[in-house]
Request: fold
Amino acid sequence: MLRLQTRLLSLLRNGGAPPLLTCTNTSLHRHFSATASTSPFAAEDYLVTACGLTRAQALKASKELSHLRSPSKSDAVLSFLSGLGLSSSDIAAIVSADPKFLCSNVDKILAPRVAKLRDLGLSRAQIARFVSIGALALRTCDVASRLRFWIPLFGSFDKFIQSASAGVLGGAAILRRDIDTVVKPNIALLLRCGLSVHDLAKTGISGVWVIVSSPEKLMVFIARAEKLGVQRGSAQFKYALATVSSLSEEKIASKMKLLKKALGCSDDLLQTAIAKHPSILRASEDNLRSTVEFLITEVGLEPEYIVRRTSLIGYSLNGRLRPRYTVMKILQDKGLLNSKFSSMIDASEGYFISRFIDYYKESVPELADVYAAARAGKTPSQLQP
Reply:
């Protein structure tokens, strides 16, 4: 080394320069800058091998981890999640939805917040379930104080999680809403409309979004629900709010136009029908069209009857209407049944199985298999032309 230094000094004194020093200062700066910026942490590969993401997911998520220089912090996060009892698939879902979670500080952020969840009385299994759908909230806010507010409103931790778990980020979106400036004013307004948090939770995630919308937006939703012909305090008002919160005015108008044409009814009659079951507007236009066509052309119902029994349009065509019609047709063809289609459709699944499947298992033993096949989308041979 000393000999090399002596050689370099000699060259410099004599006006010469070794090959490396013939490059410009700018070139040297670029060279060392590039070397310094090269990360030894291959984020994309790490996301695949350590976190279980697909290559496509990892490519997208790795952009959020480009600043990391080693896997040490991410390893600690993965170990923490595993220690909570989360499965590898749960962890993969969390990381895919929120790659920045891998950058969290376990000792200063995650562990203390989980400790507060234990102080709330949540079990290990409940904490794991919460983190699997509320990881973003755990990373970004004091979740324990917010759960302390939400759980009593929903009635239990399980009911809250059920309503909040629309996708991995669903719980985070609800928990991150400001309680004092957003949630409490909304709850007060909803109470004046005759609704509670529990009422809206029954309508699914759309109803939950109503609760956490801005107060200004909630006022708009209420006005739009009333525009559908649904009055505040009515049993259907919560469903009307959930419907308008998930659909634009243009989309609602388009679906009502489709139904008006398919059923051949007036605007007033259609609005009366929608007011009875506003949730039918949440179905896609293709589903609405197919369902009405099935009820008229295959079942043989009159459009006027369907308008009076709007609930029929709200049932799943392939999951309920068609399979039960298949059973009804078989029993009628054998002279065993005089029940109306609507009564069979409105029956609960348990009662339907008991009354129309099990009751006839001696005379029509294949009926259970036919019903199962119809629900699976297969056409029973009994109904094939």
About this structure: The radius of gyration is 31 Å.
